[in-house]
Structures are given as structure tokens and as C-alpha cells.
Design goal:
- With 434 residues, the chain is mainly α.
- The protein is built from 13 helices and no strands.
- Helix 7 runs parallel beside helix 9.
- The termini are far apart.
- 41% of the residues are buried.
Length: 434
């Protein structure tokens, strides 16, 4: 499990990011529900969908990733966060920027430049924080390679986004606008999210399955293959060679398959034979991600990639990125709260066990409903079926709301405990008085 060390982050910092991300998740899902007619007809360039997409990617996925990194980097790399106070300022700037940006995209996209710059400032502050933190690491390892490259990919996606805005205003490198745009999307998704999930999975999968005695040598080959696929894809964008792009997708799928195989090797060395239900869903995201990568390669091979990219991207963000995050949050949040609240009271008072913090079985109906809803929405986009979209998205929204409630209910344990102690104290006083 997470070792308690002097490098621990102030728990308020990761929880601020996680709680804010839950708010954005509900907002994004609700907006998507009300724009179903546009989505199933592949009309994605409308203000409400722009707002929903940025709430989901920046507000939900990015802010959750930031919160997780603030907590996990000191534990994984055994180095404290460079400046915690700077982290709280960075949260405030980023959260304000994302909400302002989403609001502007919804109501007046032409005025989104200023909130976009504020959001950008918050993300750059986060990258500075991580750069200063990682440079303190005494001995970099293969996980540093995954997380560091993911952070560089995020920075590259931002710089390419700025270049796109500059190109639109001045015409600079306008001939390469599409190549820059595709590279921006690639680095912001496969480069940032996939490499980050790969890296932290190498820490969390052995930890939650109690696996020991496995080899980490394949990890560097996983990184090499997947990074080669990213490089080949970017090269194909600028050379406009479809055959090279197909080869790049094949390499990316190969890298993902290698990662899947390595995870299986690690799980085969586990001591814990019966895995927790929520953790199984996090693991389920791995074959889902592999299927999406293989699907992208097959679509490119058969010449149907352009028509399939919409629901491939939707499935990628939901079944790989979101399902991984949700499955891991079911495990991480109770542990963080239990460690902060009760670890110092062991032996002094009766404390709840870690399993008392959340009903792990609740993840079965919640995440199953989420998967069913996502699959329904993905199929509805492919077949332009509005009723199927609405039923699927209502299911996804409902599952997201219950998921948020379960995460927040972990934090209510403290209030319930205080209330229990207050009642117990009053009862003791009455007994003493009588």
C-alpha cells in the first residue's frame, strides 16, 4: 500500500483537485445529454459540445490526473512536492480558468481567449511544479520515463494549441495547420493520458493486487514501442502519408498489447487471489483500451478511419481514460482519507477498517451501468439513433452522479464519527451524573 513517508503531500491538495473534477464530470455529462441531436449527427463544432468536451477533458480528466499526481509522485518517486503553497495557488488559477473557459465557450466562444490563457497559466504552473519536483529525484527509474514523457506530451499539446491560434490569426505555417491540429490531439490524448496511466498502473496494479517478484524489464520496451508509435504518427501527419499513419497505429496497438501482456505477467505473481471489485473495473479498462487501439488500426487499414474517429475518440476517453480513473479512485480515495484520518489513532481508539470506508460492491452496479451507457452512446453515434443515445447518456449521467456520491460519502465518515463521539460523550456524562 502507500507507505507513509515524510514526503507525503498535504491531503487537502489532491482532494481539492478530485472534488472539483467530480463537479466538472456531472456538468459535462449533463451538457452532453442535452445536445444528443448534434452529437449523433456528428455536429461536434457547437458551443455546448465545446464546453462539455473541455469540462470533461480539462475539468474532469486533467484535474483528477493532477490531483493523483500530487499524491502519487512523492510516494512513487520518494521526493516531496516542490512547493505545496504554490500547488494551492495553481489549483485556484486552473479551476477558475476552466470554469470561466467552459462558460465562455458555451455563451460566447469569441471571448474565450482570456479564460483560455488563465487555464493555460494554471496548466503551465502545474508543469513547473512537476518539473521542479522531479528534478529533485535522486535516482530516476522507468516510471519517471512514463510520467516525465506524459508531462512533456501535455506541454507539447499546449504549445501546439498556441501555435494553432497564432496560425489562425497570422497565417503562419497555415499549410501545416491540419498536421499541427492532429499532433495537438495525439499528444493531448495518447501522449498525455495513456503514458500517464501506463506509468501509474505499474505502481498501482502490483500494490492493489499484492504482486511481488515480477520483472520490470519489459516496461522500458513498452515505453519504447508506444513512444515510437507516437513519433511515427506525428511524422505521418506532416508528410501526409496514410500508409505511414496506418503503420503508426499498428505500432501504438503493439505497444498497448505489450503493456497488456506485462500487466498479466504482474497479476500472475499476485498474493491476493480475490481482487476487489472496483480494482477489477480499473483492470477492465486495459483490454478496452487495447480493443480501441486495435479498432483504430483496423479502421485505418480498411480506409474507414475518418468516419470512425468520432466514436473511437469517445470510446477512448470513456472506456480507457475515464474507466481507469474511476476504478482507481474507488481504491485511492478511501485509502487517502483513512490514512489521514485514522493512521495516527491506531492503538488509541477503535478505528474503522479500510473496507469500512466504502462498500466496494457498490462499484459493480455503478461502473457496469457506466460501461453499458457508454457502449449505448457509442453505438448510437455510429447509427445516428437519438433514442438509444438519450437512454445511454441518461444511464451514464446517473452512474456518474452515484459515483460522485460514493466518493464524497467517504469524506462524510469523519462527520459521522464526530457525531458518534458526541453522542457517546453525552451518554457517558449522563451515566456519570446519574
Amino acid at each position: 500500500m502507500f507507505a507513509k513517508t515524510k514526503n507525503e503531500t498535504n491531503i487537502k491538495l489532491p482532494f481539492l483537485f478530485i472534488l472539483f473534477s467530480l463537479l466538472c464530470l456531472i456538468g459535462a455529462m449533463a451538457l452532453i445529454l442535452f445536445k444528443g441531436d448534434s452529437i449523433i449527427s456528428s455536429q461536434f463544432r457547437v458551443p455546448a459540445i465545446w464546453s462539455a468536451a473541455h469540462l470533461f477533458i480539462l475539468g474532469w480528466a486533467l484535474m483528477t490526473a493532477m490531483g493523483a499526481i500530487y499524491q502519487l509522485v512523492p510516494v512513487v518517486f520518494l521526493t516531496p512536492i516542490w512547493n505545496e503553497r504554490f500547488g494551492f495557488i495553481q489549483f485556484t488559477v486552473t479551476a477558475f480558468g476552466i470554469l470561466y473557459f467552459a462558460h465562455s465557450l458555451f455563451h460566447n466562444p469569441e471571448s474565450a481567449l482570456l479564460p483560455g490563457l488563465i487555464t493555460l497559466t494554471g496548466i503551465l504552473m502545474f508543469l513547473l511544479q512537476m518539473f521542479m519536483t522531479l528534478r529533485q529525484q535522486a535516482k530516476p527509474n522507468v516510471l519517471t520515463l512514463f510520467v516525465g514523457t506524459a508531462l512533456i506530451s501535455l506541454l507539447t499539446a499546449i504549445l501546439l494549441g498556441i501555435l494553432m491560434v497564432f496560425s489562425m490569426k497570422t497565417g503562419f505555417i497555415s499549410d501545416y495547420y491540419q498536421a499541427v491540429f492532429k499532433s495537438h490531439i495525439l499528444f493531448g490524448t495518447a501522449g498525455w493520458f495513456t503514458l500517464l496511466i501506463f506509468g501509474f498502473s505499474y505502481k498501482m496494479v502490483p500494490m492493489f493486487s499484492l504482486s511481488h517478484g515480477y520483472s520490470m524489464k519489459p516496461a522500458k520496451y513498452v515505453f519504447t514501442v508506444y513512444a515510437s508509435g507516437l513519433a511515427a504518427a506525428v511524422l505521418s501527419f506532416f508528410t501526409e502519408k496514410n500508409s505511414l499513419f496506418t503503420i503508426a497505429l499498428m505500432i501504438l496497438a503493439g505497444g498497448f498489447a505489450f503493456f497488456t501482456w506485462h500487466m498479466l505477467q504482474i497479476l500472475q505473481r499476485r498474493v491476493k487471489k480475490k481482487l476487489d471489485y472496483s480494482f477489477r473495473f480499473a483492470l477492465l479498462a486495459i483490454p478496452a483500451g487495447l480493443a480501441i487501439h486495435l479498432g483504430a488500426f483496423i479502421c485505418s487499414l480498411t480506409g474507414s478511419f475518418e468516419s470512425a474517429i468520432g466514436y473511437l475518440a469517445f470510446a477512448y476517453l470513456q472506456l480507457w481514460v475515464a474507466l481507469s480513473i474511476m476504478g482507481y479512485l474507488f481504491k485511492i480515495v478511501p485509502f487517502l482519507w483513512w490514512t489521514w484520518r485514522y493512521s495516527k489513532e491506531i492503538g488509541k481508539h477503535s478505528v474503522p477498517s479500510l473496507k469500512d470506508m466504502m462498500n466496494d460492491k457498490a462499484s459493480i452496479p455503478v461502473l457496469s451501468s457506466l460501461i453499458l451507457g457508454i457502449l449505448s452512446v457509442t453505438v448510437s453515434i455510429a447509427y445516428e439513433h437519438l433514442a438509444l443515445f438519450l437512454s445511454g447518456q441518461i444511464l451514464t449521467l446517473g452512474a456518474s452522479i452515484v459515483f460522485c456520491y460514493l466518493i464524497i460519502s467517504v469524506l462524510k465518515n469523519r462527520r459521522n464519527e464526530h457525531e458518534s463521539r458526541r453522542i457517546s460523550s453525552q451518554q457517558s456524562k449522563k451515566s456519570y451524573g446519574s
